[in-house]
Amino acid sequence: MTTTPETRPFRFGVVAAQTATGAAWTDLARRVESAGYDTLVMPDNVSFGHAVFPALATAAAVTTRLRVGTYVLANDFRHPVQVAKEAATLSVLSGGRFELGLGAGRPDSERENAMLGLGFDRPGVRVERLVESIHLIKRLLAGETVTVDGPHHRAVEASVLPYGTAPQQVPILVAGGGPRMLRIAGEHADIAALGIPFHAEELAVRAAVDQVRSADRPDAGTPELNMNLMAVGDVVPRYLAGRLDPAALAAQGAVGVVSGSPAEMADQLRERRERLGISYLLVGDELMEAFAPVVGLLAGS
C-alpha cells in the first residue's frame, strides 16, 4: 500500500569529488554556499577523488553555513570505530555541520576493495556488515563505551568522544537501490538516499519510496528522502554527454531530470515532493550553476 509522504522543506546540495588545487577546492566550497545550496557532499573512492574527511574538513573551515557530508562512505573501507571517530571530530570542528552517508559498497567496488587488500563479499554479507556498523557508530556518537564481538566487527571498550565532548547529533544517510537496502534506510537512517536509475519514471520511484516507508522503524519518525538529479535542462555531466538525452527523458517522465525554465523546474520539484515526498535534491558540480536559479526559488520552502 502506498503511504502518504511527509512534506519537508526543500534542501539542495552539490556532489563533488576533486579539484586540481587546494585553492580551487576552497573556492568551490565558497561558491556552493554563496549559490544558496545547503550541502557539499563527496563520494568515497580509493583511486578517484580526494580523501573525504580532510577535504570535507577544509570545506567546512572556509564556510559558515554550508553542511558537508559523505555520499557515501564505502562501509568495507574502514572499521566503524574509526568512522565514528572521524565523524565525531568533523562534527565538532564544523559546529555540527557534518552528515554521515553510508553504503554497503557499489556493485563495481571489487577493484577498490582489492586495492586495500580486502575481499568483496556477496551483497547479503556486505549489507549485514553495514547494519552492524550503523548500530556501533550510533552508540559511539552517543557517547557510549562499547564492547562488541559481532559476526563482522569486534571492539573492546571503544569510545571516540574526548573528555568533555558532548554526544554528537550526526545525521546518518543510508543509500540503497534494492528493496532490502531501502528498508534498512527506512529503519535506521535520518536520510534515505534513493539509488534509482536516472531514467526511472515515477511509478518505479514510488515503489522505492514505499519500501523506505514500510520499514519497521524504532521511533515514530520517517527519514528525509534524497535523490540525485542527472540533468538540468540540457546540461548533463560530461561522463554522460552523448549517452543521455535530457529532452527524451523529460518527455517520458524521468524523475532524475528537470526541464524548462527555472520556474517550471521548481514547479516540477514541488509536484514531485507532493506526490513522492522527495525534498532533498543533489546535483553534480558540473550542474550547480544551471540549477542555482531553481535553488533560489525553492530553498527552505
Automatic annotation (TrEMBL):
Domain of life per record: Bacteria
A family per Pfam: Bac_luciferase
CDD domains xref list: Tetrahydromethanopterin_reductase
InterPro entries listed in its UniProt record: F420-G6PD/mer, Lucif-like_OxRdtase_MSMEG_2516, Luciferase-like_dom, Luciferase-like_sf
Domain Luciferase-like residue range list: 21-219
One GO MF term attached to the UniProt entry: oxidoreductase activity, acting on paired donors, with incorporation or reduction of molecular oxygen
Name of the protein this chain belongs to: F420-dependent oxidoreductase
Organism of derivation: Nocardioides luteus
Phylogenetic classification of the source organism: Bacteria, Bacillati, Actinomycetota, Actinomycetes, Propionibacteriales
